[in-house]
Automatic annotation (TrEMBL), chain B:
This is ABC transporter permease subunit. It holds the Pfam family BPD_transp_1. It comes from the Bacteria. Its main location: membrane.
Length: 288, 291
């Protein structure tokens, strides 16, 4: 069929382009080749050893790990709870609350960080205002330990609604007979939630977990946005920020590229490892 | 076998004997948390620069029209240019991306050809590969083509979205019956015609989702324009506000502009959401886990 070839071309071309890009990236950093008037020599793996032994990168990775340990469980826990509540019987205001909780998804990460950033500023924040009125100590949300919470809060705010919708959709797909049977067996709402609903939406939990981890690995815009409001976010707070710093501020494309490859590799290894575990656990034979 | 792809129905109005207080309260608390910053920016945008720091946070101020005028006047209305750029990047980018996704998804769902699985696996890798990681090589590539710091440098990388293709494929295989394609062929229609007049209308609800998804993704994108663009007349609104905030750190008078700008930047998206949320088939987003 001529059309098949056309479609293939239409599709294969961008993919090849993507492949070309990916090869190119490896080449640029792996071989140390690049454009420019500077003389460039074979670098071997030295960019990688540099990147991997860079204390700033390690520190950034640890920061993101700590951040992820707060974000992922909180966000998914809230998403699951809200989804279960939405799905519970005799709940009021369902469509309003669903929409309200989903709404932050429409707010760009930069703007979300900006809004919360202002809400964290002691001079403006209502939280500080209330604490001051009550005579309680006011923690500086933009420094030290609270900074992690402050950043995590932005991610939780932006992501809970989306994950809630994914889980809620899966809940709605559970056939009613299952509940009938459970009720006849004398299960309470709570038991139904714990023993039936949660196990049956496990695949969507896996999926949302997976997306959240990937999103966490690439956190960039939120800490970058908060940077102007405080002195305690270094330019290399997250690994991706380090890539940016190396490539465009320090003009060291090669180290930046090596770091980017390391991040991509970690992401892919995590992803595929994760898919494999998830695949063997849920035994779904489709789409792969 | 096939997944239900209709939007979740609104709860059927049955006479409730009693409201489940705890879940309802939890949901309203969640809604409050999610609406808080939006409510804040709505109020803060009405405050003049002095009021912002002196009056209670949730007390409306008197400076909204003034703030609006200041924002519009800032550097000869560069803010509205940012909004226009965002609309261009997100609108055109999402449209092109949807078209490509539709074609590719349809081809992957309907045709059996050699290497289809390979193509699909590459695609899956693309979904897993965070697009932001690609930004640096993309920059290098576009720099070589002398395209950096142009509108194209933001638009072009947005067009191919592996996730969009993936969604389109899931949707095409659920919404376009094989029999219809077969019937079209027996009637002697060309493949292109089958796609355009038979498959495309069937895929339309799914494609609306793909479009909206892409629109939001491009509108929200920060890293790509941050890397690609140097000339602030080409900035999208996210990047523009970021630079404004950066300057605001040294002169807090700009804070009111940032706040007003942030409000105006989220209004279109929220309106868009409220208007078309009924067309969203959100369950498509979880298409990967259909049972």
């Amino acid at each position: 069929m001529p059309a098949t070839a056309l479609f293939l071309l239409f599709f294969a071309l961008p993919v090849c382009h993507a492949l070309y890009l990916s090869l190119r990236r490896v080449e640029v950093k792996g071989l140390g080749l690049g454009s420019g008037a500077r003389e460039e020599v074979w670098a071997g793996l030295s960019n990688y050893t540099d990147a991997l032994t860079d204390s700033e990168l390690v520190a950034g990775a640890l920061r993101v790990l700590g951040y992820g340990l707060i974000v992922v469980p909180t966000m998914l826990g809230l998403a699951l709870v809200f989804a279960l509540m939405l799905d519970a019987d005799r709940v009021r205001g369902r469509s309003f609350t669903r929409l309200a909780i989903f709404l932050p998804y429409a707010v760009p990460g930069v703007i979300a960080a900006l809004l919360w950033g202002f809400l964290y500023l002691p001079d403006i924040s209502p939280f500080h205002h209330v604490l001051r009125e009550l005579g309680l100590p006011e923690p500086d949300l933009l420094d030290g330990g609270p900074l992690y919470v402050a950043l995590a809060n932005i991610a939780v705010w932006g992501g809970t609604g989306f994950n809630m919708i994914v889980i809620y959709t899966a809940l709605r797909a559970i056939p009613a007979e299952v509940y009938e049977a459970a009720r006849l067996d004398g299960c309470s709402q709570l038991q139904i939630a714990l023993r039936i609903k949660i196990p049956m939406v496990a695949p969507s939990l896996v999926l949302t977990f997976f997306f959240s981890v990937i999103a966490t690995l690439q956190v960039f815009s939120e800490p970058t946005t908060l940077k102007p409001l405080t002195n305690s976010v270094p330019t290399t707070w997250s690994p991706l920020m380090k890539v940016y710093e190396d490539a465009f501020v320090r003009n060291d494309i090669h180290t930046a590229a090596a770091t980017a490859v390391v991040i991509a590799a970690v992401t892919l290894v995590l992803s595929f490892g994760f898919l494999r575990i998830a695949g063997s656990r849920t035994r779904q034979g489709e789409t792969r | 076998m096939t997944a239900t792809l209709s939007a979740p129905l609104p709860p059927t109005p049955r006479a409730p004997r009693r409201i489940a207080a705890l879940p309802t309260a939890a949901l309203f608390l969640g809604a409050l948390y999610c609406l808080l910053p939006v409510a804040w920016v709505l109020i803060a945008a009405t405050k003049s620069g002095r009021e912002l720091f002196s009056t209670f946070t949730f007390l409306p101020g008197t400076g909204f029209t003034e703030n609006l005028a200041d924002l519009s006047a800032y550097r000869d209305g560069v803010y509205w240019q940012w909004m226009g750029n965002s609309a261009l990047y997100a609108g055109l980018g999402a449209l092109l991306s949807t078209a490509v996704s539709a074609l590719a998804g349809y081809a992957l769902a309907v045709y059996r050809f050699r290497g289809r699985e390979a193509v699909f696996n590459v695609l899956l890798t693309g979904v897993l590969m965070p697009p932001v990681i690609l930004a640096v090589p993309q920059y290098l590539l576009l720099a070589e083509a002398n395209l950096t710091d142009t509108h194209l440098s933001v638009l072009l990388p947005s067009i191919l979205s592996p996730y969009g293709v993936y969604l389109a494929r899931v949707y095409a295989s659920a919404a376009v019956p094989k029999d219809v394609v077969e019937a079209g062929r027996t009637d002697g229609s060309g493949e292109w015609r089958i796609f355009r007049s038979l498959a495309l209308p069937m895929m339309l609800p799914g494609l609306v989702t793909v479009f909206l998804f892409q629109f939001v993704a491009i509108w929200n994108n920060f890293l790509l324009p941050y890397i690609m663009l140097g000339d602030d007349e080409k900035f999208p609104v996210t990047l523009g506000l970021f630079t404004l905030l950066q300057q605001g750190a040294s002169s807090p008078a700009l804070y009111t502009l940032v706040i007003t700008g942030a409000l105006l930047a989220i209004v279109p998206l929220i309106v868009l959401f409220l208007v078309i949320q009924r067309f969203w088939s959100l369950d498509l987003l979880s298409g990967a886990v259909k049972s």
